[in-house]
Amino acid sequence: MIRWGKDRDGHQRWKCRACGVTKSERPVNPLAPMRLPMDRAVLCLSLLVEGMGIRAVERVTGHHRDTVMRLLVLAGRKCEALLDRLMVDVPVDDVEADEIWGYVGMKEKTKTARGIEDDRLGDAYTFVALERTSKLILTHHLGRRTWNDADLFVSKLERATSGPFQFTTDGFEGYGAAVWMHLAGRVDYAQLIKQFGTDPEGARRYSPPRIISSEKRYMSRYPEPARVCTSHVERQNLSMRMEVRRLTRLTNAWSKKWENLRAALALHFAHYNLCRFHSSLRMTPAMKAGVARSPWGMEDLLAA
Predict the structure, then answer these.
(1) Structural domains in the chain?
(2) Which of 1, 8, 135, 180 is least enclosed by beta carbons within 10 angstroms?
(3) Global confidence as pTM
(4) What is the pLDDT of residues 241-257, one digit of tens each?
(5) Distance (Å, rounded) from C-alpha 277 to C-alpha 210?
(6) Cα–Cα dist 173/282, whole Å
């Protein structure tokens, strides 16, 4: 092959001396089959991970909301595959888990009143596991608040972690059997059960209920009482509410499709772990945990 000029896009062309066939040396497009320029895609995704909605991104960038949505789904699938590849056998010391509520299409009470039987509509809970020291999101799972989804979540946590560690959750009953099945002998497991008071309707709607008591329940092996805590992962719930527009309370920005919410969550967690500097760590959680050596950019997420 010999150099044979450049094509109209500026890419190097080559010619075979034997057969005379010419070809262009085009770089791999991580956004294929979309034809959106990389810089515009990075702008759209950067606005999404900062908490802007689809139509807000449409107004700022000028790209149609359907294009922004297709880009979100494509990037979300890439980020989900990337997290599955990176978060394997991560050494951990203290892990906290919690579930955050959201909904797809309509709330559960509306779905029940209309007699709709569709598992992809109604309440959607995101299970999150956070390493307390590095603030790394080890794994997440989108599903219902059921025993089966708790089992799937803990099985993902088993794959993502290595070695013994202390594990703390809330009082959801589905965790007990799942931890015994997947993490027995590896974890010092405890539950932190909080009792909430009854507030007036207005206070309960616009502010969290008042905690009247808490109980530490030791489930397996020997968890340290001072480390039985879920405050760090509950703080992560605030980050999700602020940076994933679909989870913002009391707005009209809920997800209409299950796949869209799943993609938005994967994009958020990949950006949080690999790109976003944590203020208390002064580095990304992935760097603190030894998963990455340097901070990533949005282009790196798409290319990887």
Answers:
(1) 1-30 (no CATH), 38-303 (3.30.420.10)
(2) 8
(3) 0.88
(4) 999 999 998 888 899 99
(5) 32
(6) 37
